[in-house]
């Protein structure tokens, strides 16, 4: 059956690959985006997830077109990398407000329909950095680590309602952001990855789609690394 799926930050990179994976499976896919032109083929809703009113309005638009959201992928995120001594309070709080509190906003709103339906799938996109740490990314790592505690708490809170909460922790992925790095930076990153390469966005998307499938109905509170072995043991 075609489900109502929402992917936040689904206009590029990993989010777009996830949206395409669900659409290819026949689901009705909505995406949120904050700026730029959204890709064709999806119900694209402009929404800044740091604004609760915009989140509410986005859900109303999606529910009117596709019905209650049955699968939510909280993918939207930002970075403001800086060494701690130079990191401003805004650098820290704005990253947490998007990556962690933004996830809270979209999950809480989706939960309304999922509770009524007594079923739902939520997948939060974290990062290997949230588990492994990274110099210059204390704000980003804190926000991504926070998603793990958030998901596991909700897995315990709402498991009896047949709503699952899982986390996918990608490693370094071949996207526009990583392509902008110098050849030396890219080589240095790859040298740390046991599989010796970047992930493709489609590899992250395949894991997300699995966690939202019937085959994963008994998986909740899990953190699934898709990182080529970079963060093993964390």
TrEMBL record:
Gene3D superfamilies: NAD(P)-binding Rossmann-like Domain. The active site is at residue 140. It is an enzyme of class 1 (oxidoreductase). NADP(+) binds at residues 9-12, 75, 140-144. The keyword Oxidoreductase applies. Keywords: Fatty acid biosynthesis, Fatty acid metabolism, Lipid biosynthesis, Lipid metabolism, NADP, Oxidoreductase. Pathway: Lipid metabolism; fatty acid biosynthesis. Belongs to the short-chain dehydrogenases/reductases (SDR) family. This is 3-oxoacyl-[acyl-carrier-protein] reductase. It comes from Streptomyces griseoviridis.
């Amino acid at each position: 059956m075609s489900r109502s799926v929402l992917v936040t930050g689904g206009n590029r990179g990993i989010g777009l690959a996830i949206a395409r994976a669900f659409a290819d499976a026949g689901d009705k896919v909505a995406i949120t985006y904050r700026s730029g032109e959204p890709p064709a083929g999806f119900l694209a809703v402009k929404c800044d997830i740091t604004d609760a009113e915009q989140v509410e309005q986005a859900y109303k638009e999606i529910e009117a077109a596709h019905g209650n959201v049955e699968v939510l992928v909280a993918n939207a995120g930002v970075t403001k990398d800086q060494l701690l001594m130079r990191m401003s309070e805004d650098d820290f709080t704005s990253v947490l407000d998007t990556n962690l509190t933004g996830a809270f906003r979209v999950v809480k709103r989706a939960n309304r329909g999922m509770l009524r339906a007594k079923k739902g799938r939520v997948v939060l996109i974290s990062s290997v950095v949230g588990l492994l740490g990274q110099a210059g990314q204390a704000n980003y790592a804190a926000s991504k680590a926070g998603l793990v505690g958030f998901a596991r708490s909700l897995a315990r809170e709402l498991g009896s309602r047949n709503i699952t909460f899982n986390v996918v922790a990608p490693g370094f992925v071949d996207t526009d952001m990583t392509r902008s790095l110098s050849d030396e930076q890219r080589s240095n990153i790859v040298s740390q990855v046991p599989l010796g390469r970047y992930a493709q966005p489609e590899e992250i998307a395949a894991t997300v789609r699995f966690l939202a499938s019937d085959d994963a109905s008994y998986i909740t509170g899990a953190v699934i690394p898709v990182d080529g072995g970079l963060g093993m043991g964390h």
